[in-house]
Design a protein that fits this description.
- By secondary structure, the chain is mainly alpha-helical.
- 48% of the residues lie in helices and 4% in strands.
- Helix 3 runs parallel beside helix 7, helix 7 packs parallel to helix 10 and helix 10 runs antiparallel to helix 11.
- It contains 19 helices and seven strands.
- It has a single domain, classed as Glycosyltransferase.
Length: 501
């Protein structure tokens, strides 16, 4: 645990980092532990299928239990991606990869906070689905539901009467991006379960290897194969090279097989892993995540063949920090100090940046290293402070004094753009709420009848403003992949980050 003096120094560093002295609240370890518990609880809100007996969000019910049957596949389970009733495999797999990364790198912190079991439950619900979706070595079911029909309705997932077609990538319709992301998720989860369930871990790893081979040997963008089915919702804008690097990186970490090391070294330039410098990390572009992950091998084992990845990781870190810290930054910040990249679901970029800063800070701290950004030396403490400043903003240290995590603090969003939360539950209103009927609840100015506990919404605009209106999906819709990176950062803050010691 951190000393009081260390916590004070971290708080001061966060204030200097953002230039927002008057806005930053002094959150305690107990506050971060509470936010951590809520951030994982959100996956109960998003759970699809026949709910398990350990389900904690009781207003949710069983839903989409027959998914895949019309295609003779067993695709019940998994998670809805956001405030709709769609199961998109691409962002779902990314969410499981990041949850698993937290369970690997912040295992002790999660255990001390009493949240490791809940985190592993959340991961396993997702990876069980991904295993079912991998029906043959060169087959992967990557989506259930028609997004256009789904988005034309406002109904509870328990009431869905919209078409539920399932879509598969295979040798005729390749999808290297979604397949390699799925491989990353399965490989990362195999590490998360290795000490607790060796049989399940081995099963995950076997599937990961097969799915990665499929992704690598039958290359193509899944959005080229399925067009309007996945675009513009989760179109693969960055292509699939980043996912091939990402998948191989996790397989190397999971197996330590030199085959994957050689793949990463020999393909570093052609796939962009050692040449692409990026300033964001999200469900579509995985370069920064792979580069930071592989940097651990350079810093810890001096693996010279991977130095190019570490150089790009350094560039990423330099690009996301405020100008007061990094003179070569490529990132804009709101007046209140929030990293700002997009007017739609901006907090997804904030939580991933905070996560990678925390992870990389730990790697640097363990090897007693720093990063040079245009001549400025960046320490692990500064990275931890930056991550803390972003998390504090999300939790309520902002101009509005509003927490952007539902259920945390005294003030948080009331009209979250989320179908299930905005409609009365089956327990309260047992009757069917049909497609168009639900819009009468959508249009009301009343708070949601159900709390999407732990949901982190899209977030405020570039001027630190938020319009808490249900129709404002760009700011008010939560997603599984906004929450996933927060788990590790909050565990670190709750239990005392290694970077603070």
């Amino acid at each position: 645990m951190c000393s009081r003096l260390t916590r004070l120094l971290v708080l001061i560093a966060a204030l200097v980092c953002t230039g927002s002295l008057r806005m930053v609240a002094a959150f305690t370890a107990a506050d971060y532990a509470s936010a951590l518990r809520l951030s994982i609880l959100f996956y109960d809100v998003q759970r699809s299928g026949v709910l398990p007996n350990w389900q904690r969000v009781r207003w949710r019910g069983n839903s989409a239990i027959y998914d895949g049957t019309q295609s003779k596949a067993r695709l019940s389970g998994g998670y809805y991606d956001a405030g709709d009733n769609m199961k998109f495999g691409f962002p779902m797999a990314f969410s499981m990869t990041l949850l698993s990364w937290s369970a690997v790198d912040f295992r002790e912190e999660l255990k001390q906070a009493g949240q490791l079991g809940h985190t592993l439950n959340a991961i396993r619900w997702g990876t069980d689905y991904l295993l079912k979706a991998h029906t043959a070595p060169n087959e992967l079911w990557i989506q259930v539901g028609d997004p256009n029909s789904d988005h034309a309705c406002w109904e509870r997932s328990e009431d869905m009467d919209t078409p539920r077609p399932a879509f598969q990538v295979n040798t005729n319709r390749p999808g290297s991006d979604v397949a390699a992301e799925t491989a990353a998720a399965l490989a990362a989860a195999s590490l998360a379960f290795r000490d607790l369930d060796s049989i399940y871990s081995a099963r995950l790893l076997t599937s990961a290897i097969q799915v990665f081979n499929f992704a690598n040997n039958h290359r193509g963008k899944y959005s080229d194969s399925f067009g309007g089915v996945v675009c513009p919702f989760y179109c693969s804008y960055s292509g699939y090279n980043d996912e091939l690097v990402w998948g191989a990186a996790w397989l190397y970490k999971g197996t330590r097989d030199v085959t994957y090391l050689q793949y990463l070294i020999s393909n570093g330039a052609t796939l962009g892993g050692t040449t692409e410098s990026v300033n964001s990390f999200d469900w579509d572009n995985k370069y920064a995540g792979a580069q930071v992950l592989l940097s651990a091998f350079v810093l810890g084992e001096n693996d010279g063949g991977l130095h190019g990845y570490k150089a790009r990781a350094d560039n990423f870190i330099c690009s996301i920090l405020p100008r007061s810290v990094s003179p070569v930054t490529q990132t804009a910040f709101t007046p209140g100090g929030l990293l700002f990249r997009s007017g739609q679901s901006n907090l997804q970029y904030v939580t991933t940046a905070a996560f990678l800063a925390t992870v990389y800070g730990n790697y640097l701290s363990n090897s007693r290293s720093t990063v040079s950004c245009g001549g400025a030396i960046i320490t692990p403490l500064q990275l931890a402070s930056f991550a803390k400043s972003q998390v504090d903003y999300i939790l309520g240290a902002n101009r509005l004094g509003m927490s952007y995590m539902v259920g945390f603090g005294p003030k948080y969003p009331q009209q979250v753009h989320h179908r299930a939360a905005s409609l009365p539950s089956k327990r309260v209103y047992p009757g069917m709420i049909y497609c168009q009927q639900g819009f009468s609840w959508f249009q009301t100015a009343k708070p949601n009848p159900n709390q999407a506990t732990g949901a982190v919404i899209g977030g405020p605009d570039q001027s630190d403003n938020l319009n808490d209106v249900r129709s404002n999906y760009a700011q008010m819709e939560p997603t599984t992949y906004i929450n996933a990176p927060l788990v590790g950062v909050l565990a670190s803050l709750a239990e005392g980050s290694k970077g603070y010691k």
